[in-house]
Amino acid sequence: MSLSPTTTDPVFNPDEPYLAPVAASACRASPRPSCKIDLAEAFVDAIELSPVTPVEKQNDDPEMLSVLSANHRAQKTREKIQFAALCWFVCLEGWNDGSNGPLLPRIQKVYGVGYAVVSLIFVFACLGFITGAVSNVILAERLGFGKNANSVGYVACIKENAEAKMSVFMAVYGAGALASPLVATQFSHLPQWNLHFLTSLGIAISNTIALSVVFRLKPQEECLAEIGIVDVNNSTSEHSHLRQIFMNKDVHFLAAFALLYVGAEVTVGGWIVTFIIDARGGGSSSGYISTGFFGGLMVGRLVLIWFNEKIGERLALYIYAVLAIIFELVIWFVPSLVGDAVAVCVIGVLLGPMYPIAVNHARRVLPRWLLTGAIGWIAGVGQAGSALVPFMVGAIAQNSGIQTLQPVLVGILSLMTVLWALVAHGSRRPD
């Protein structure tokens, strides 16, 4: 018969740490009558070595995994198709903006009009842009209209590589604006120069077909749901989306920035050919300088993505704005045909990333449920700038000469920089 205490194997309880063997061992190993301290130390060791509560086995049903994988692939394919259709649309927008520069001198010659009258082309285009900007907030939700704003809002809603995709998306605009002056310059030498607009009509018809087939006039929420992005409205405001948009001061700062940016971009692309011909003595092939500008715009939106990510997009835009002002001063004060042509291309590279950066910033500071309407307003006001600023330049040039182009652009770029400083820092997006 043994006098030693009877020991039993402890029953494992996953909700309590297993201490018995460790504590008992510590007591037996201690030469002192009390093992209080050793028990405390053993308790600490036991906590470190206690087993983890078993986790339920994950569902690894091969059939279920296969279905999920197939759905994911289908969503990715659908996303690529939608993105391609939107890129083709924004290419048309670039094509339209890039056509004006090489054709303006020919239009002035054919119709015998001055700078102010020919700049009315930009003004009448503005009417459609303003109407679309206001009506898009309502029509985009109800009927799926406003695909320009929807396209930017769609890319802004993407969570995976959104900044890079926005830059690529905007670069396609530059590709359209790059190709258009090449074609328009050739047509400007022909007796039937206005046949150039038949090419624009063909691209527009193909866009109408592509957008109708891919999106089928669905609202953006349904289009995003098809690619696995659920757009949840977390708004607690009793006000309508339209009122929430106009109550947000960041929307107005970004809209004013877009107005000046798009105005400066279209002004350079539209009037630089006239400036080179009249102020620098360029020939009929000066229309290719507009191609260089929009080519730089496209290149800047692609090759400077890494730089934007490295130093931060907000700081990068300040750097681009300052450098663009410097090169505008070079064109202003250095009367060199070749030097001015090179400076115009560099300015295109510097202006290129600015608009994608502004849209990316809107994506960070604005609620997702307001993105489509807000970006629609920002883009619409920006397109209004594409009419307002070139018309203003034309009116000034009518009285003071085309040499006033560079001082006006320097002032616009400086005001853009100030507006960018007023936009909210960081991310305040509630979702």
TrEMBL record:
| Protein name (record) | Major facilitator superfamily (MFS) profile domain-containing protein
The UniProt entry's GO CC annotations, sorted and at most eight, read: endomembrane system; membrane
Compartments annotated for it: namely: Endomembrane system
User: What positions does the domain Major facilitator superfamily (MFS) profile occupy?
Assistant: 251-431
Name where it mostly resides. membrane
Query: What are this entry's molecular-function GO terms?
Result: transmembrane transporter activity
UniProt-listed SUPFAM superfamilies? MFS general substrate transporter (SSF103473)
Protein family membership: Belongs to the major facilitator superfamily.
Transmembrane intervals:
113-139, 168-187, 193-215, 253-277, 289-308, 315-335, 341-358, 370-393, 405-423
What is the topology of this protein in the membrane according to its UniProt annotation? Multi-pass membrane protein
